[in-house]
Amino acid sequence: MKHLFTLIFILIAGQSFGQQLPLFSQYHQNNFVLNPAMTGMDESMVAGVTLRRQWQEMPQAPETAAVAFRTFLDDYNIGAGGYILADRTGPTSLISLNGLYSYHIDFDNWYTRRLALGLSFSLAQYRLKGSELVLDEPDDPAIFTNNVSQILPDLGAGAVYYTESFYVGLSIPQAISLNVRFNGDDGVSNIRRIAHFYAMAGGKFITGADDHIDIEPSLWIKYAPHSPLHANLHLEFTYDNLIGAGIGYATDNTLQGQFNFMIAERLRLGYVFGAQFSRWTNFLGGNHEVMVSYVIDSKRFSVW
Q: Phi first, then psi: what are they for 68, rounded to 5°?
């Protein structure tokens, strides 16, 4: 059993450092994190907090927290925003500051038909507490045991075309991919970071009596060299912008259910529970994610 958890921990640590962007189930609500060109696409000023705990049954499971803000400057067709991210998995952790910029090109004076180009800038501090590693062979000289940290910059880019009813985009959220190299008294630990490639698409269809029901399908495809293609599918139903429910599936056999509702004027609460169906299910447990967002100002109020 001990070896099993050690193996899973190594895989998690590798994923945590290999994928510097946060892993959020409500990615359609945080699309500007996936693609900086989508910043301001909803023409709204929104602030929010997201908390996520993954694989709750596992000791020292991944925990992620983010505080985000985005807005749209209508006079200049510019989107701007940023977020602070904190992510921890056992003795590994990172804290990053991220800035987002997008420019939206209009193709129609009467309807929303735009091409947006975006850039993201980040500065991340990576930490490794080698002294917290629990080893089968404590005196193994090949194991890195120092408590160290390193700060690295990164750059991302993206593009998205969107209308009132659909969007499609591409992005490279981690373009520079500098390696994280820790030097200590007892050795060197080098964590290789690689570029990731994202594709996303989604739509919004209005139906029901008096057009009170929104149906929003979305797709997020992720690819990294030497890794299998990964896709997330999500379908959400929202009634009169007051209450919503959705279901999602990922190609790693993860199924999730989502609920969100307005708890006060312009204040929305969302919750997601997800579980991965595999032979590791009993050891890993489910995923929990909570998001609170406040619409400070909005040209449409019904945001993507």
A: -130, 155
